[in-house]
């Protein structure tokens, strides 16, 4: 009886160990602290959990008071996807801006400074960087989160980012394996499919992951995508061929494999989160990320019980679950001394993010109208927010222009009448039109046509992927919509 109880307890603890759940609010709820005592080994943080660096440090300290070796993970890419600065916009440009500069030392410095700030707050595991090659310009979910469309460029910057982040004591996580860049569907909403042949996948999608592994990345995140050349039947997150055959055996990766969020529709809408979690662990994943949408004790209980039941039914080998749990504990063992040494280094925040954002600008000037001499009207042509980015984080140049030119006015426009509405709202002021991925939104291009026909002195700031030809009296491509990118663009617009 005692032996049976001990086995059950070990099995339950292992099932809890492989979960990385989220929770609501800026303080740890009682149920989460209780689960940490029962075996939960990781916690995932999102924008809703962060109010300030001081609050975040207090939160992580409370978690570690309950379990000293808990892994505290966050989705902090810098650029458009920020959780540390979710309400203000990031102090760091994202991957696309760094790729545009193409200085691996700069990328390493940016990643190090970002990691240092995470470590100061007690965060030791970052679900970043995106190692995706953005080969499809129409990609609705990757875009500026990628270093670019060239596999070699993405590979060298992925390696630099991993090295910089981990030098700061924070475990890196290259994502989204085997590569989410050639998709036209957002896996938050449905199951994307990549029909590229195997030789192309090897040369393009896998190159950055090889570089990340060579750089020593502590984790790799799987993608909820179907790649028939690798596995015609299962999305990568649930595929033994992809996670074990390709990532473990062919690429020789021995670190932690974590899934993308299991409540995303690509999994939740096809397999369900319980069945999906069991299949993911069986396929070779070591940790289940959940909590972006489902963030409660009931979700943790359901997934724990599903894993335990699958082992007892013979559907999931107990050894596989134990191995997954051991990899989670191994990563926690790496982060403890690394986190402490990074915290000891301390130091004042660096302005390397602004330096990088300024260097990332591509500026195209047309003859004619000169610089702004009076407060302008900023017309933000606003697309539907990318789910990974969210709609909480402000973006654009209006706030920074208002700081430089008090009296600057702004409004947001969308849809077929956006151009005419912006012209009317400007009321004779010079217009700064801010766009995000003009090439993906026909209405946005039409709005610019209307603005430029009526007001050729319009300044255009592109804060997405600059795929459309530059136009306007001045065109500034920032390669990302972080706050720091807006500041860099505003400086150029005023000083042009």
Overview of this structure, please?
The protein is α/β, with parallel strands linked by helices. It is built from 18 helices and 14 strands. α17 (442-454) links the parallel β12 and β13 (459-462). 58% of the residues are buried. The model is unreliable at 1-7 (pLDDT under 50).
Index terms:
496 residues; alpha/beta; 6-stranded mixed beta sheet; 3-stranded parallel beta sheet; globular; disordered N terminus
Contiguous uncertain segments of 5+ residues? 1-7
Share in β-strands: 5-15%
- Read across the widest sheet, the strand sequence of neighbours is 9-14-13-12-10-11
- Based on secondary structure, the structural category is alpha/beta
From the N-terminal CA to the C-terminal CA, the straight-line distance is: 79 Å
What's the tally of helices? 18
Please write out the topology.
Elements: H1 2-17, E1 19-20, H2 30-38, E2 42-45, H3 53-66, E3 71-74, H4 95-101, H5 104-120, E4 125-126, H6 151-167, E5 173-177, H7 198-203, H8 207-214, E6 219-222, H9 240-250, E7 256-258, H10 265-268, H11 273-283, E8 288-289, H12 297-312, H13 318-345, H14 352-360, E9 362-365, E10 377-381, H15 398-404, E11 409-413, H16 418-426, E12 431-435, H17 442-454, E13 459-462, E14 474-477, H18 483-495
Parallel strand pairs: 1-8, 2-3, 3-4, 5-6, 6-7, 10-11, 10-12, 12-13, 13-14
Antiparallel strand pairs: 9-14
